[in-house]
Automatic annotation (TrEMBL), chains A, B:
<comment type="function">
    <text>Involved in the assimilation of dimethylsulphoniopropionate (DMSP), an important compound in the fixation of carbon in marine phytoplankton, by mediating the conversion of 3-(methylthio)propanoyl-CoA (MMPA-CoA) to 3-(methylthio)acryloyl-CoA (MTA-CoA).</text>
</comment>
<dbReference type="GO" id="GO:0016627">
    <property type="term" value="F:oxidoreductase activity, acting on the CH-CH group of donors"/>
</dbReference>
<feature type="domain" description="Acetyl-CoA dehydrogenase-like C-terminal">
    <location>
        <begin position="467"/>
        <end position="593"/>
    </location>
</feature>
<keyword id="KW-0285">Flavoprotein</keyword>
<dbReference type="InterPro" id="IPR025878">
    <property type="entry name" value="Acyl-CoA_dh-like_C_dom"/>
</dbReference>
<dbReference type="Pfam" id="PF00441">
    <property type="entry name" value="Acyl-CoA_dh_1"/>
</dbReference>
<dbReference type="InterPro" id="IPR009075">
    <property type="entry name" value="AcylCo_DH/oxidase_C"/>
</dbReference>
<keyword id="KW-0274">FAD</keyword>
<feature type="domain" description="Acyl-CoA dehydrogenase/oxidase N-terminal">
    <location>
        <begin position="81"/>
        <end position="157"/>
    </location>
</feature>
<comment type="similarity">
    <text>Belongs to the acyl-CoA dehydrogenase family.</text>
</comment>
<protein>
    <recommendedName>
        <fullName>3-methylmercaptopropionyl-CoA dehydrogenase</fullName>
        <ecNumber>1.3.99.41</ecNumber>
    </recommendedName>
</protein>
<dbReference type="InterPro" id="IPR046373">
    <property type="entry name" value="Acyl-CoA_Oxase/DH_mid-dom_sf"/>
</dbReference>
<dbReference type="Pfam" id="PF02770">
    <property type="entry name" value="Acyl-CoA_dh_M"/>
</dbReference>
<keyword id="KW-0560">Oxidoreductase</keyword>
<dbReference type="InterPro" id="IPR006091">
    <property type="entry name" value="Acyl-CoA_Oxase/DH_mid-dom"/>
</dbReference>
<dbReference type="GO" id="GO:0050660">
    <property type="term" value="F:flavin adenine dinucleotide binding"/>
</dbReference>
<dbReference type="InterPro" id="IPR052166">
    <property type="entry name" value="Diverse_Acyl-CoA_DH"/>
</dbReference>
Length: 598, 598
């Protein structure tokens, strides 16, 4: 049976020592998040994830969800009780608006906790996760009445939320969508259409489900400029705001998916369901996009989460499984064979995952912190810079953490040999669950295009230039620190490659946009490697500082951390050159072949 | 529903134009394999794979195998009939020994056909595939009587075969195995023990199953030097050699696997089952190893096969799915959107897979041809060189084609967006099926160790030196061919990196063997990239020759082939530098961390 232990110590180290969380105590909400409280929240949240949610992961995968003959959907055994305990403990309210029952704490904390819950059980985490997305959309675009009606229940978790975008013929290109909304003259609309891939679309864990639905108002312009956002409750609300009669929305079937079996992914049929406009007419896409940064960061965390839990289990197996002898001579001569962690090729796999996990976790928290600053800082310039950093890093995190997180889950599975391929060890579930994160909330190719097509050129490249300057300043400030040289030098080389690639786009993508498309995915990964390399340099600095302070309690752990970071620089950063070479080769070869000759 | 078309034209082009198959007509068996016959066999074999075997792939995955209460196992619907048709048509006998009912044709042809059958239905292909492995073992190590008893039935396919190595506590390290064999004094043994992960271990498609089982004769030495190989029929044979009463062997349960659901992967219980020694006492591992090259080549082909079928379906989807507009302006303005194949990032994925598939197919056939030459050439030196090449390339093919084949299946799945994640499109099956090939028949980490630890140093590096010389000679012979420059230059660069990496091992792995282990997987992939690059250079030469000959019928296809090859050189070869950098970083960092600190 797979196991999981929340990496609370690493999160705390990143928050306290690397990101200097305490220095933001003048921001609203941060003052309440004292170091003690942060530690208590993460410790208790981690324990909840380990003890209540994780035990339902494998069984939830094997049992899956069931659609009953009346169209209702039953999640796997134990999910409902665990969900109620989750809400009871207030884990869903951490960073929610206090005006509607939230705790108003920094979103960074909710992000950290989200990693634990996703590691423990990704399919489960999606129920509150989708709700959080719907809360964000209503908070930003709902009327006061809508907020009063829906937010308290959703924040408390007694109602969950969904996002309804995709239709059978359109996903990425929402301009093609056909679901229609007919105004009823009383401010309400009747919504009709079919939506697919709707996570948490129908289930019996709560008394109501709040569907946010993209549809086209009758007579609206074609394309993306004619799409509006609607709120459609599963049960209509009575005069007191309580769920009453059924609305015209139902689950037509459950998708047969590769993974996340514990989450009810539904085909949703809307048949003149009553809904209300959220935000302006025909501005539905904009309403969706404003909440996407947050949702994409959540999916990025899913990639990290599966990489982390897969790593932990692979380490446990590698220490336990006896097979063969170390090349340099027996390490456990008293046993029939050595544990396979003595073999360098096993260590290579484990260190590669670990080096990614810590760098990725740092980048997630760094970005989430910028998100908090962007929302809470009193200083406009500070807000703008944080907004820039968050916007720039969001597609990078979503694309790179899910691509690499999946690859890491596959590598961790490999450590188990044949046992990784069979269900009882749970490794194949991590692989199958991780796979979806590369696809939904904008497939990773779309993230790459968002990065090179939108985020890079925005405001004359202001965001990317600021990021380069920040790295440069860090390098300059630490150039004489000999202990940091193994980090600063490779980072500088990687950053050079990233700058060259950026320059190449500036010179070649204006006249031929396909040059941007052809290099977009490589650029995204190049960016991710360098950004995580920058995080590792910051981690190394904080680690050395802690070692110098003589914090002897975990000296060995700190030294190991430096080794994981060194591994990152030695073994992962070299990939930046290959990315640059591919980017620089441009689009000519790939565009030269007629579609029929593929 | 997924579809499949056997790439017969590409196989024929590789055999005839790139590998000059006709020039080997003086070898035994090759004279019969005239170009016309080869074309007829591949065409008909391809059709059989497409029409009879492929339609059972998705249904076989969804239905899976069933273990009945009496311990018998029923494969998915249709498998038995298809298997009988397969045997009827003689597809299993192509390269088998004519003395026992085989056709004696080159093994290269059987390898080419194996790709088609595996693409069509990997789980199905394993039933005859495992039989072929058992046939090879009995052919090499069985007594004349054993051969007479088993081979005719196994070659005809009326009996199938299995390989029983793995036990719950040992897979890679067979020295730990515990299954025991007690001599009965009449030449027979009673075998007892539990074997796991036994492909095609039990099923009702044939009248008997021939289990080859590794076990330890009572009193044998410990470790790998005390292991013997036994043949254990499911039903004992009566005086006429026909299956009679049940032997003490049964399927305890079916493994719950991530994929290849159509193949019955069994836990096999041996309870005083009667068996007979194959080969010498205590030399069972050697008997296994001599057949491993062939089996590993078969698994390499599985990696290619899933990459190919996933590619074909991704191409079809990319041409069909309308979503968004080309960055350079609408390409199908009459439609609501452009087909997604207009997008460079989609083409990047498709070309990467295609460029791999053609290079990999060439390398498979090149290696299989060396296998034929090694077995059939009258000239000792030629035989030795071919044996060297086959031995050298086998771990490279097994490791690289399955790692990259899996990654390609994942990338092809990505083209489908959300539809790739749900069962009805069949893409997730290719991913799940491809995954096992990285694990079984020696996990890929073991292949990498076989390459750097055995194949590289064998005979003072004779094999690798010969391979370098061959590439160098090719470069020299074509250095003035301007049309080939885009292939020769990057190949030279990649080969340089490979030579530097080889040199690095020679200088650093003797004194510290962990340096070999730490770089082994990167070296294997570096080797594969260069070897496939060499194949692409040969393909390009043959393509230019065909274009120069004015073979106008498929000029556009030939030009596209050059573009796929150019893509390989521009986008895939740059990875060699990253591999070299990682290899050269050595083992120090990864060995510096205590196991408890992971």
């Amino acid at each position: 049976m797979p196991s999981y232990r929340a990496p609370v110590e690493d999160t705390l180290f990143l928050l306290n020592d690397v990101l200097d969380y305490a220095s933001y105590s003048d921001l609203p909400g941060f003052a309440d998040a004292s170091p003690d409280l942060v530690e208590a929240i993460l410790t208790e949240g981690g324990k909840f994830a380990e003890e209540v949610i994780q035990p339902l992961n494998l069984s939830g995968d094997q049992e899956g969800c069931k659609r009953n003959s009346d169209g209702s959907v039953t999640p796997p055994k134990g999910f409902k009780l665990a969900y109620e305990a989750f809400c009871e403990a207030g884990w869903g309210t951490l960073s929610a608006d206090p005006d509607f029952g939230g705790q108003g704490l920094p979103h960074t904390l909710a992000t950290a906790l989200n990693e634990y819950v996703s590691s423990a059980n990704m399919a489960f985490a999606m129920y509150p996760g989708l709700t959080a997305g719907a809360i964000a959309a209503l908070t930003l675009h709902g009327t006061d009445e809508q907020k009063q009606t829906y937010l308290p229940k959703m924040i408390a978790g007694t109602w969950t939320g969904t996002m309804n975008l995709t239709e059978p013929h359109c996903g990425t290109d929402l301009g093609l969508l056909r679901s229609k909304a007919v105004p009823q003259g009383d401010g309400s609309f009747k919504i009709s259409g079919t939506k697919i891939f709707i996570s948490a679309g129908e289930h019996d864990m709560v008394e109501n489900i709040v569907h946010l639905v993209l549809a086209r108002i009758e007579g609206a312009p074609e394309g993306t400029k004619g799409i509006s956002l609607f709120v459609v409750p599963k049960r209509k609300l009575d005069a007191d705001g309580n769920p009453g009669e059924e609305n015209g929305v139902s689950c037509g079937s459950l998708e047969h998916k590769m993974g996340i079996h514990g989450n009810a992914t539904c085909v949703m049929n809307y048949d003149e369901a009553v809904g209300w406009l959220v935000g302006d007419e025909h501005k539905g896409l904009r309403a969706m996009f404003t909440m996407m940064n947050e949702a994409r960061l959540g999916v990025a965390v899913q990639g990290l989460s599966q990489s982390e839990v897969a790593y932990q289990n692979a380490v446990a197996y590698a220490k336990d499984r006896l097979q063969g002898r170390a090349l340099s001579g027996a390490k456990a001569p008293e046993k029939a064979a050595d544990p396979i962690i003595v073999h360098p090729d096993i260590r290579r796999i484990l260190m590669q995952i670990r080096a990614f996990n810590e760098g990725a976790r740092a980048l997630v928290l760094w970005t989430a912190l910028h998100g908090d600053i962007a929302h809470r800082s009193p200083d406009e310039k500070t807000r703008q810079n944080s907004e820039d950093m968050m916007g720039l890093m969001t597609p990078v995190l979503k694309g790179v953490l899910t691509d690499t997180g999946f690859a890491n889950a596959v590598n961790a599975q490999q450590v188990f040999g044949g046992h990784g391929y069979i269900a009882e060890w749970g490794m194949d579930q991590f692989v199958r669950d991780a796979r979806i994160a590369m696809i939904y909330e904008g497939a990773n190719g779309i993230q790459a295009l968002d990065l090179v097509g939108r985020k890079l050129p925005a405001n004359g490249g202001r965001a990317v230039m600021a990021f380069f300057e920040e790295m440069k300043a860090f390098g300059k400030a630490n150039k004489d620190d000999e202990a940091l040289a193994p980090f600063i030098q490779p980072l500088k080389q990687g950053a050079d490659h990233l700058q060259q690639a950026t320059m190449w786009f500036m010179q070649n993508a204006m006249k031929q946009p396909d040059n941007a498309g052809a290099g977009s995915t490589d650029y995204m990964h190049l960016f991710g490697l360098v950004a995580m390399g920058y995080m590792w340099a910051k981690i190394a600095k904080a680690t050395h500082a802690k070692l110098a302070n003589g914090d002897a309690a975990n000296t060995e752990e700190l030294k190991a951390k430096l080794a994981f970071g060194t591994f990152y620089m030695e073994r992962m950063m070299p990939e930046t050159a290959a990315h640059l070479a591919r980017i620089s080769s441009g689009c000519d070869t790939m565009m030269s072949v007629d579609a029929d000759l593929f």
